[in-house]
Amino acid sequence: MKKKSLILLLSLAMIFTFVLSACGGGSEESADTGDDSAVLKVVTEATFAPFESTEDGDDTIVGFDPDMMAAIAEDQGLELEWVNMEFDSLIPALQSDQGDIICAGMNKLAGDRADKVDFGDTYFESDLMLLVTADSDLTGIDAVTSDMKLASQIGTTGGDMVQAMKDEGKIADGVVLNQWTDCYLQLQNGEVQGVIVDKPVGEAYLNNHGDIAKFVGESFGEHEEFAFAVQKGNTELLEKLNTGLANIKANGKYDELVDKWFS
Ligand code: GLN
Question: How far is the CA of 12 from the centre of ligand 1 (A)?
């Protein structure tokens, strides 16, 4: 009798163990079946209105870029989350697998960026301009004198330009700051005599500050082509983003967003 009950007990234990592992395995299987479909991390620097910015006291990132990427994601069945960080951290973030996509009004032609990440198709074009106070006598970038200071954002084409002008002795100092909003503040506080900024971004600033600031002169520097970027070699994702961009351009969504953010 004892032997029979022992066998029964062992059988029940084996069945119980099997059921447990089957349930446990299910959760692993569901993970393998892609239920944890990857949410792609988009990294940006959100003081670059109207491409990306945050409302006062709210971390939500709004602008042309989030709207454009949301339309691309919907078209391609992707899920995105946005992370705000300093501009010069964006490429390192992809290189260290801390981000999947850069979308930040980033010029794909600048420097060695394309050696570090893979850029997609151009989604916007721009040039650099000199922003000064409304009462400035400056007539353009060529009128800047060696006693002056210019500001721009660190790691950007504008930032590189003010540092080059400093190195060449064309200005007394090239002030590179983490946020565009700080650059504007330094201008208004008289700390610097000009800000080198992307034309559409400077225009957005002037829309709300046309009484205290202005553009002077013509655009200068390399003509810029803004593009999103993915980690080096992620051609599958890049093809999806490029296809999505082509589709929203074809169906009118892209133009609708340009009107929304730049009219
Ligand atoms: N277009 C400039 C660049 O690529 C600035 C970008 C930005 O500040 N978000 O460097």
Answer: 66
Q: What distance in Å separates the CA atoms of residue 15 and residue 18, rounded to the nearest whole number?
A: 5
CA count, 13 A, side-chain hemisphere, 230 = 13
Is the bond into 66 cis (omega within 30 degrees of 0)? no
How far, in Å, from the CA of 163 to the mean position of ligand 1?
Answer: 15
Nearest atom of ligand 1 to the alpha carbon of 44: 9
DSSP 110: S
Alpha helices (runs of H) in 44-167, residue ranges in sequence order: 64-76, 90-95, 113-116, 157-167
What is the pLDDT of the chain when averaged over all its residues?
91
Per DSSP bridges, beta strands 101-102 and 117-119 are unpaired
Q: Which residues line ligand 1 (CB under 6 A)?
A: 45, 48, 87, 104-107, 110, 153, 156-157, 198, 224
What the block records as the tokens of 1 is 């009798």
Say if CB 116 and CB 232 are below 8 A apart.
yes
Query: How many angstroms separate the alpha carbon of residue 155 from the centre of ligand 1?
Result: 8
pLDDT tens readout for residues 76-104: 999 999 999 999 999 999 999 999 999 99
Q: DSSP letter for 107, please.
A: B
Q: What is the 3-state secondary structure (H, E, C) of 25-69?
A: HHHHHHHHCCCCCCEEEEEECCEECCCEEECCCCCCEECHHHHHH
- For residue 103, how far is its CA from the centre of ligand 1 (angstroms)? 10
Q: Distance from the CA of 55 to the center of ligand 1, in angstroms? A: 20
Residue 176 pLDDT exceeds 80: yes
Amino acid identity, position 236: E
Q: Which of 85, 89, 156, 220 to mutate to test the pocket of ligand 1 (most atoms within 8 A of CB)?
A: 156
pTM for this prediction: 0.86
> What average pLDDT score do residues 46-52 get?
97
